[in-house]
Amino acid sequence: MISYDHSYQDLKLALESQANPEYATAMKAYMKGQYEFYGLKSEARRTVQKTYVKEWQSLDSRAFKSLIQQCWSEPQRDWQYIAIDAVRKYLKHMDESYIDFIMSLISEKSWWDTVDLLATNVIGPLLIRYPNGKDDYISAWINSGDMWVERTAIIHQLKYKDQMDADLLSALIDIKKHDKRFFIQKAIGWALRQMGRFDPRAVLDILELHPELSHLAKREAKKYLDVS
Predict the structure, then answer these.
(1) Is there a contact between 115 and 152 (Cβ–Cβ < 8 Å)?
(2) Over the stretch 55-66, which tens digit does the pLDDT of each residue have?
(3) Are the C-beta atoms of 161 and 198 separated by less than 8 Å?
(4) Which of 44, 99, 183, 203 is the most buried (most CB within 10 A)?
(5) Has this prediction a pTM greater than 0.70?
């Protein structure tokens, strides 16, 4: 029995004691019926989990990964949100092995709510910290055949601000420009929109280079540009 087990069970009891079936039904409907929920709103859930997540920051890497995997295995979506909050706080302790570990979470129980948080708040910073393998990682992800992994490749730079790599984004767009799936085209537009805050000229150049992009992607991309 690993050291976090007692606190984990205490947290489970706390979540169960505050479950709200009415909210849970609404939350499940919002997520297209894909996941169960306890029915705690985000603020209430974070209040319940706060002490436990803080304790988990002292775990060694092996125990922490086991904990996160256990959270990810739970049927209630709340547990995946707790795991993401814990992961974000643990980021300072992460070595390069966490890139593959986090991508394994992105590939499981995948939907925009977990994928986008992990892609932008964890994978993005890890690739800055460990740049040597970045090209290989990104190439593998964009050609993975897993829509959520591909989306991660496209949006991982969202919080890079003026350090976004326009050439890299353009190359990724070139690979996925004919992919009409909503979550891919939305990702392309979102990434371009963020880049447009800091380098509108680069966004205009990319749009000119890739006229095949969907109306959705183009509309998103132009949100902060002075164009029609």
Answers:
(1) yes
(2) 999 999 999 999
(3) yes
(4) 203
(5) yes
